[in-house]
Amino acid sequence: MLPLYKKGFTLLFIVTAVTITIALLRTDLSPLLNRILGDQRSDPSDYLSLDLYENSEELDASLSSIKCKPYRLDRAGHEQADKFYGKPDKEERSCDDFYYPDICSFQVTKSGEHKLSCDSKVCGSSRVQMGSINPNMGKISEWTDLSKETMVTMVGKAVEMDRKSGFGFLFIRCGNILQVLTFPPVLQKVEGGEKRKQISVNVISMDSLSRPHFYRSLPRTVEALRKIKNDFNIQATALDFQIFQSIGEQTFDNLRPFFCGVVKDDNILTNTVRTSKYSLGVDVLYETFQKWGYQTLFQEDLVWFDRWGIVLTDLQVRSKPTTDSEFKARWNEFKERMSKKHIDDFGMTHFSGPLLGLRYSETNHFENPPKVCLNGQFFSKYFMDYIQIVNTAIHNDPRTKPLVSFIHFNTGHEHTGQRIRNTDAHLAKFLINMAEFPNTLTMLVSDHGNKNTQYSYKTEEGKREVYDPIAFMVIPDGVVRNLGKQRMGALVQNQRRLFTFLDVHRALMSLNHPKKMHSQDPQVVGIFADLPANRTCADLNLMPQARCKCKIIEKNNSVEDNSDSLKWLAEFALGTLNEAIQKQHMRGEVHTQLSPKKYGYGNCQRLVGKTFANIVQRSQGDSVTTTMDLHVVPPAGYKEDEIFKVSVKQQAKTKNKVWLTSFIRKSSKAFDLINHDILLAKLKMYGVDDGHLQLFRRYLADCQQYVNINGCISSPLGITHGVPQGGILGSLLFLTFINDLPQVISNSTVSVYADDTTFTSSAHCTLGTIAVEAKLQEDIDSLCAWSTQNRMVLNAGKTKSILVTGKRLKSRVADPSLKLQANGTAIEQVIHQKLLGVTIDQELTFKEHVDKLCKKLSKKIGLLKKLCTYLPIEERLLFYNALIKPVMMYGSIVWTYCSKEDLMRVFRLQKRAARVILGTGIRSRTVENFKKLNWIPFFDEVKIRKCVLIYKALHGESPTYIESTLTTNHSLHGRETRHGQYNLICPKYRNTTEAGRSFQVSSKHQKLLGVTIDQELTFKEHVDKLCKKLSKKIGLLKKLCTYLPIEERLLFYNALIKPVMMYGSIVWTYCSKEDLMRVFRLQKRAARVILGTGIRSRTVENFKKLNWIPFYDEVKIRKCVLIYKALHGESPTYIESTLTTNHSLHGRETRHGQYNLICPKYRNTTEAGRSFQVSSIKLWNSLPNELRKQRSISSLRNDLMNYFINSYRDIDSFEAVL
C-alpha cells in the first residue's frame, strides 16, 4: 500500500496498482507529449515547479481560483537573467584544493559505539598538530604537537575536554593539510526512559536565494526534490510552496517573525540609530519546543566575533577584538547572551572562525572568497553532515529526545549570484538522506532573494525576485501519520496559497500544543490550516517597502512617475527628512567623538527634490502605504542624483494622519562604494607593511556616522565603505583601489583618471564596426565582472560610446553604430563626448569643444569689461590670469589640432581680452597690445607647452606613455652624432589623414626587445637590419683574416657574428623563405671567409669542416630545447600553457602520450601556421622518441646536433632540404 499523499494528493483512495498506472498515464503522459511536440525550450527551470511535466499554462490553470497569481518569467525574462548569471548548467562545482584521507576519524563498531582511530601517513614527515577552541576566548589560541605513538590518546582527551566545553569538533593540521574532526553528538534522553512520540523538525535557511534563482542555479537539488516527490521507492514526499512571500528585504525582517512571531521594521525613522537589529527572538520558539521535551540545535556559518556579528547577536556591528583580553571579554559576553537562547547544541557554528581565518584571513564570507573549502570539500557540507549525524543517532535510539534544528547558510550572500551553486551537490544528497528518516520534517527555505547582484537592482524582474523566496518541505511517511489528515491536507492545499514566515511560526508553535493543534484557524495554526484563496498582500503584515508577489495586485497598485495626485506625499516625505536635517544642524550638539561643527546632510544643505518614481501603493487595513524613490539635487561636486527610497503611511479616509515610516538611501558615488576590507587587502598586496596598514585601518575604521533627530543624538555607527573625500588620502586610496582594473582588460587601451575610465580600441576600416564592437563588449563584460567582484557599481546610464573615424574614413564605414551593453543595459552612442574637460567628436575636429570654449570665454571677457571701470590694469590682468587664461589653455595641447578657422575664433577672443584690459578700441593693433602686456598668441604658448612636455619626456620626467611615443636618432641607429640625442624621429604619415595633426604619429613597425615587429608579421624590416649588421661584421672579419689563424676567426664568428644572427631567431624565423635565404647566404659567406675558400666551394663541405649546421636548423634545436624545458616545468608558465600533451588530454595510458603534443587547428591562409605553438609542436612530434625521452638538456642538444648533421650526410645542397 502506498501513502495517500503521493502524486500531489490527486487520489484519495487507492484501489489497485492498475488504477495508479491509469491515473499516471492520464495525468502525466499528455503534458509530456505536448511539451515534446510543442514547447521547444526544455529547461525545467522555466516552469519553477517540482512537477517534471508541468508547464506555465497548467500552473496558471491550477491557480485559477486563487486571487494572488505570482509573476512568472517568460522566455525573454529567462534570457535576461542568463545574461547576468550565465545559462543554467549541471556541471558540479568542486573545490580547488585536494582531498586527503582523514588523519583522525570516528568509526562505528558493531555494538554501535564510536571508536577513535588515527593514521598520519598522509602527513609524511610533516609535524602533526591539533587545535581546539579555547573555552575562555572562543578561538584557537594554541596548537598542540602530536606524536604518532600518542596521537589517539591525546586526541581522545581533547575530545572529552571539548565536549565538556560545548564544542563538537577540533582541527588537525600537518604541512599544508588542514582537517576537522567532528565528534559524535551528545544526546538527551526522554525523561522516564520512555520512547519519543513527537516528530523532529529540521529547518535549512538559505540566505539571499530567490525561487527563480533556486531553479536556475541548483539543478541537482531540484532533481532530488522531484525524485523524493515522484519516486515510489522513497517513502516520503516533497511539497513546493509556490506563493511564499518575503516580509521584507532584510534577513531579520523574515527570520524574526519565524522565531518569535513579531514583525518589526529595522529601517524605521526613530530618534536613535541602533548598531544592532531588534532581537531575533530565537528563545521564543526554542523555549516552547524545550517545554515539549525537545533538544535544540542552532547552527550558522558566520563568525561570532566578526564586525558584522551573527544572527544570534542580532547582527550587532562592532569592531573585531584583537588582543586576548578583548577576546575573553567579548566571549564572556557572548556566552551570557547565548545562555538565554535555550540552545542545547551549537553544532559546527564556531567551526567557521578558524577555517576562514586560517585559510582565507577573513572573518566572514559575505562577498569573498568565491569558494570556501576545507580538505577538498565545500564547508557547507560539514554543517549538513553534522545534522545527519545527529538525526542518525536519534533515529537509532528511540529513547532520545526529538530534535528541533535550524541552520542559516550565507553562501548566497554575495554579488555574483553564482556562489550558491557550490552547495548544490551536497544539498541534493542531504535532502535525499533526510527523506530516509521517517519521523523528521525537513524544511528548506530562504529569507529573501539576492539584492546585491547587478540583476537585482538593474532589472524589474531582479527587483521582484528579492521578495520571492523558496519554501519546500520533505515529509516522510512517519511525519504524515503524526500530522494527520487535516494538517497534511492543509499543507498540500497551501502549496497554492499566499503566506509568509509568520504563518510558518504559527504552525510550529501549534505543532504539539494540546489545544491549538486541532484548530482550523489560520491565525492560530498558520499553514496547518487551509489559507483563504482570496488572500492578497493587503492581508499580510509586510515591511513598508516590500514588493508583492501578486501580479495583478502590484500592477493595479502601481502609479505613474511624478503623479500630480501624489506630489503632496512626496513633498511631505522630503519635508520630514529636511526637518530632521534642520534640527540636527540648528542644535549643533558636539558629540565627544565628533569634531566641533554642525551636523547634517552637507552641514544643513537641505534636500531639494527633483522627481519621484517607482511608486507603489498598498492597502493594509484602514491605512495606505506608498513607496517611492525620491530623486534630489546632488550636493556640490557631484553629478548623479541622490535617491532616497521612502515609505509614507496614511489613513485611508483622511490626509490629516500621515507619517514617514521608513527610508533608505539608495544612490552612492564611486568614492562611497570602496569596501574597506578589499582596499586594505590591496594595500597589503602592494607591499604596505603591517605597521602602516594598521594606520590605514584606523584611518578608515574610525570614520563614524551619527543621526540627530528631535534633539536626540544617536549612538555611533561605523562606516565600512567609502573613503573620505577632500583630503590628501581620498584620491590616492581610490586610485590604489582601482589600480588593478587595467589588468583585466585584454583588448583595449585603458585610461583611468579617478572615477572616469576610458576604453580605446581600434580596427581596420574594412572590418567595419564589428571588430571594434566585439573587443569593447568583451572588455566591458570584464569591467562589469571586476566591478561586481570588488563590490563597485558600473553606472551604465553615464557610460557612453563614441566611434572616432576622422573625416577620411567616415564614408568608408558602412554601419557606424556600436551595439554595446553593460549589465544588460544598452550603452548610448554619441557623436561627441566630454572627456576630462575636452569634448571629442567623431571626426576629431574639436569643433564642439571650441564652440563651448568660445561661449565660456565670451562670458568671462564680458564680465571683465563690466568690471573694468572699478579695476586698475594690474587687477584686470589678475582677473585674466586667474579666470580666463586657465580656461582657454586647459587641454590646449590636445584640442589645438583643430582647424585654422577654429583657432582664429579663440585667438580673436584673446585679442578682445587684450583690448578690454588695456581699454583700447577695436581698431588698435594687436601686435602693439600684446607687446604692452608681454603676451604671445595662445597657439604659440601651446607650442611652448609641447616643447616643455617633450623636454620632460627626454629627461624621464613625464609619464611613460608619453616617453614611449618619442624616439631619438641616437637610440635608433646607435651612431654617435652631434645632435643625435636631441633630434627626434618623426613617423611617416599621409597628409590626407588626421595623423599629421596628432601629438605623435604612429609608425608601421616597432622594435620590441631587439626584434622589429611589423603590422603583417613578415619580419622583413628585422631581416633587412640584420643583414646589414651581419654584412658589416663579416666584411670586418674578411679584412682581419690575413692576421688571424682559423681558430681565432672561429672565435670572432662565435663572439660577434653568431649571437647577432641567432638573437630572437625563435621569433623572426617565421619570416618568408626568401628572407631566410638572405641570412643563410651570409652564413655561407662567413664559412668561406673563415676557411679562405672561394665562392665556388661547396657549402656542404665547408659546413662539415667547421662542424656547422644551417642556422635555421640550429633554431629548430632551440625550439626543441624550449619545449623540453616546458614539459619538465623549467620554462615560464606562459610557454607551458601553450602546450598540451596527449596524456593530459584524454587520460589514457599510451606509450608516448606524455611526449606527444596536441597541435592546435589552424588555417593555411592565415599566419597561425607560422606561430611558435604550431610549428614547434609539429617539429617536436616529428622527432624520434629516443630524442624526446632524453633526461637532460645537454644530452638533448648534443643528440639533436648529431641528428641534423647526419641528416645532411647524403645531400649536395642545403637549399634542397630547406
From TrEMBL:
Pfam families assigned to the protein according to its UniProt record, in alphabetical order: DUF229, RVT_1
Origin: domain of life: Eukaryota
UniProt key word Transferase: yes
Domain Reverse transcriptase: 576-840
Cellular component annotations (GO), alphabetically ordered: extracellular space
GO molecular function per UniProt: RNA-directed DNA polymerase activity
Keywords tagged on the record: Nucleotidyltransferase, RNA-directed DNA polymerase, Transferase
Protein name, entry field: Putative RNA-directed DNA polymerase from transposon BS
Organism: Stylophora pistillata
Organism lineage: Eukaryota, Metazoa, Cnidaria, Anthozoa, Hexacorallia
